[in-house]
Amino acid sequence: MQTIIIGAGILGASTAFHLAAAGANVTIVDAILDGRATAAGAGIICPWVSGAEDAAFMRLYTGGGEYYPDLIAHLTEAGETETGYRKSGAMLVSGDTKELDWLERMTRSRHAAAMGTVTRLTPHEAQRAFPPLRHDFGGVHIEGGARVDGRLLTASLLRAAERLGAKRRIGHAKPVLSGRRSVGVDIDGESLPADTVVLTAGAWGDAVLRTIGGRLPVEPQRGQILHLRLPGQDTRDWPVILPPGSHYIVPFDDGRVVAGATRETGAGFDYRVTAAGQHEVLTEALHVAPGLGEATLIETRIGFRPATNGIRPMFGWVPGFEGLALGNGLGAAGLTIGPFGGRLLADLVLGRTPTIDLAPFGLAVRRESGSAIALR
Ligand code: FAD
How far is the CA of 49 from the centre of ligand 1 (A)? Predict the structure, then answer.
């Protein structure tokens, strides 16, 4: 039984690892496209503070956060030392006491054990936890918050999968059909047979499905994200900073501090750093953390989030085709959901019962003109 995975972002890499760990024959192929979301993602793992009200989505999202410690333990057992994950805490910050009261109440009401201790911090305490913070912002600290370097974790999953027998290929791939049955993959003109094909092509998922007459309601949402360095500062244990709104600051090792990010719908696959994008991210970051003003600007990364315009992430067999499974639509939450999602996809392929009900994330067919099929 051979499985081929198209797309080696965090979702595909995790699927490959879990399949290989279960003893399955698996090959994973990636075209190393510019704007791979996993290579640009900030890496905040703190789903408990999300304002999302969709219970099924929250089960998936918090399931993702809760799965991390187990996954890191599996990877460590498998000999991986550099996974890029650290439970360094997260801190909601604001200059408005009433807003902090509300954030504290909302966070505590989640009652999630994985969140650890929730502590209200005065502006002085908040600045001690994150020195570049403006002096009039207080905080709500979440002990179980974490951050992950998506590049390191994905590389670690792929290395571990290879040691368990998985094969890796570089190239542009598309499914090969016999009638409505998927029988393999074409990689730059070379055919590889497979019993099952799994599509985890992120923002390119629609383009891949179109090669076999399908459609997927996923489009790229461009994110521009800045990497700064504070020379000589020990940033390793600083918490993730979550101000009101969609911007944030994520400290890593060696003085590296990441400030993100734009959310640009409609920019397509335009792989460029724009003046407006750079301006937006720096303005937001320096407003919250003026202490970053002296940091060195090292690089700006660009990633295309697989966005679905309000539709839940998708995990399941592709209706209308045999032997074709798919995971997509992780949007702005994919570094959190991806590792868990990969385990769910592996369970699906192996015929095991996934640990959460996948029905709310299943795919439905909508027939359009001619033979084209739109999923969901
Ligand atoms: P991708 O990582 O994009 O992987 C898809 C892969 O498919 C790519 O490697 C591509 O090369 C390959 N591919 C495509 N077509 C083909 C083909 N035909 N043949 C072969 N290979 C192909 N999430 C969080 O949880 N927390 C965060 O803090 C966070 N911050 C983010 C910040 C930014 C700026 C961005 C852009 C994203 C952020 N995310 C975050 C979201 C997260 O990064 C994504 O949801 C996640 O990485 C998506 O993973 P994926 O594997 O589905 O897609």
Answer: 22
